[in-house]
UniProtKB/TrEMBL annotation:
The keyword Transmembrane applies. Pfam families: Multi_Drug_Res. This is Guanidinium exporter. It comes from Alteraurantiacibacter lauratis. Belongs to the drug/metabolite transporter (DMT) superfamily. Small multidrug resistance (SMR) (TC 2.A.7.1) family. Gdx/SugE subfamily. Keywords: Cell membrane, Membrane, Transmembrane, Transmembrane helix, Transport. It is found in: Cell membrane.
Length: 106
């Protein structure tokens, strides 16, 4: 169950990062509220996952899901640039996540 909590927490990190972008520096109420609510739930699920997963594993995977997810949302939704270097960086992050998952005892 911890891995499910961690995965959903990572997805919520993508949600709050995107909503924060849309909030325009917290000047728009709805995206600002979505940011804060998604942050609370993301942190709560991360905390639940950390009950049984090592700190380094949980935090690395949580931030990795957020980073790669935000990268994908930036490209697909916001039209950000797709360059070979950015794609390589995302591939390296995903590789690190897979290695962290494979090396975790839980």
């Amino acid at each position: 169950m911890a891995w499910i909590f961690l995965f959903v927490a990572g997805l919520l990190e993508v949600v709050w990062a995107f909503a924060m972008k849309l909030s325009n520096g917290f000047s728009k109420p709805v995206p600002s509220a979505v940011t804060i609510i998604a942050m609370i739930f993301s942190f709560a699920l991360l905390a639940l996952a950390m009950r049984s997963l090592p700190l380094g594993t949980a935090y690395t995977i949580w931030t990795g899901i957020g980073a790669v997810g935000a990268f994908i949302v930036g490209i697909v939704v916001l039209g950000e640039a797709v360059t070979p270097m950015r794609v390589l960086a995302a591939v390296l992050i995903v590789s690190g996540l897979l290695l962290m998952k494979l090396s975790s005892p839980a």
